Amino acid sequence: MTRHVAVIGAGPAGLAAAAAALRAGARVTLIDSAEQPGGQYHRMLPDAFAAERPERLHHGWRGFDRMRRHVLGHPRCGWWPESSVWSLERPDPGEARPPRVHVLRGPADGSGRERRVLDADALVLAPGAHDRVLPFPGWDLPGVFTAGAAQALAKGERLVVGDQVVVAGSGPFLLPVAASLLEAGSTVLEVLEANPAATVTRGWARRPWELASHGDKAAELAEYTGLLARHRVPYRMGRAVTEARGEGRVEEAVIARLRADWSVIPGTERTVPVDAVCVSHGFSPQLELPVAAGCELRDAAFVLVDDDQLTTSPRVYAAGEITGIGGAPAARIEGLLAGWCAAGGEPGVPEIRRLRRRRDQARAFAERLAAAHPIGTAWSSWMRPETVVCRCEETSYDTICRAAGDQAGGSFHAMKLGTRAGLGPCQARVCGPTVAELLARHGITATPHHRPIAQPIRLGELARRPHEEESAP
């Protein structure tokens, strides 16, 4: 009997999982909230743009385009674009089957979305990650963007967030973001890496012989640095945007030099006129669906998987950034393994053995990346008492600290109700990791990823009888 594999997420990991499952003979339903596959890494222009060079802002476009056409055109693949998985319904205890998938099909702002319920033989979770942004005074001003949002506008709409832009934060992601902005027409004034050169060098220099298997990463880095050099964009380490100022929108950024723990070196502050600031301090994996499926987490941060990418939940596989932040190539390798194994493919074939070795190398690369670009423990010293931490509910740093002090060692639920941090429309997706870290300093354990309803659903949609998809795409 042909297996039916449902893949949630059509970024590098999800698209690769679908391709591998099809190759193993399975039927596939590929679900994504966007109109086109590719995720953030290969965010595409809408078809209406009729772009002559859609690959212009993309690295590795040809391989992606080849896989995209193969998967979407395959007779055993059902492609569900603009579809949100709002809930995963776990099976009864003792049942060895994956959760039922509850989906809303249609544009997120549309009024006629269809409710679908999908039962599959195996489930691959590849929802990806989003930017983590640490709060600082003025980060809630219009004109301060996450780096991912700025890149999405440049790639997906050919829109620039500003004419005079500073890109700041930590990690290699800052480079492709700056490149996307330059190609789309912005002037990037400077790129700022918060970690000093010694921290970055120490992280990347450990066991240097392991880098020999990542020549593609070196070529990509050379391409980005070359582009910045041609545009005379300085790349400065040990520096960060610690404040944004302006009347009604951002007009200037305060840039300071940092110590290794990210505390500001007094007297190093300078002010730069800008009309946009793009910030990213790493990534937060989207763990709502894995947690809903009952998957165990590793270090309370990533989904725990075995050698086949199988989670602790029966017939639920995971791939990509939810298992560790390693970039698109690592996500693609994990997706191939997860899709093949979810479809019941033979685990011992030579190609799969090679994939496992490459996956292990990618995991080592992810560990190196985390060591080279850590978040300094003193970042909270940038904030003032009135600095907003939860933008949805306008909860300030002082409010959270006072409540945490009163509730030290107490309940995260009581903290949320008392401060309303994380109760707004984003449901702690933006502020959750920050609030969790602040509360941990007071002995309060936070669980920001537990959401029975993973995506917004209207009451009318909830009341509507769903259409049940049995085992066909």
Description of the molecule:
This protein has 473 residues and is an alpha/beta fold. It has 3 domains: 213 residues, FAD/NAD(P)-binding domain (3-Layer(bba) Sandwich); 149 residues, FAD/NAD(P)-binding domain, CATH 3.50.50; 62 residues, no CATH class. Helix content is 31%, strand content 21%. The protein is built from 13 helices and 23 strands. The strands form 7 sheets. Strands 3-2-1-7-20 form a 5-stranded parallel β-sheet, with helices on one face. Strand 18 and strand 19 form a beta hairpin. The longest helix is centred in the C-terminal third of the chain and has 23 residues. The protein starts with a strand and ends with a strand. The mean pLDDT is 89.
Hey, roughly how much beta strand do the residues contain? 15-25%
- State the strand order across the main sheet: 3-2-1-7-20
Q: How many distinct folded domains?
A: 3
Sheet with most strands: 5 strands, parallel
Question: Given the helix and strand composition, which structural class is it?
Answer: alpha/beta
Low-confidence stretches: none
CATH topology label of the largest domain: FAD/NAD(P)-binding domain
CATH architecture of the largest domain: 3-Layer(bba) Sandwich
Query: Can you tell me the overall shape?
Result: globular
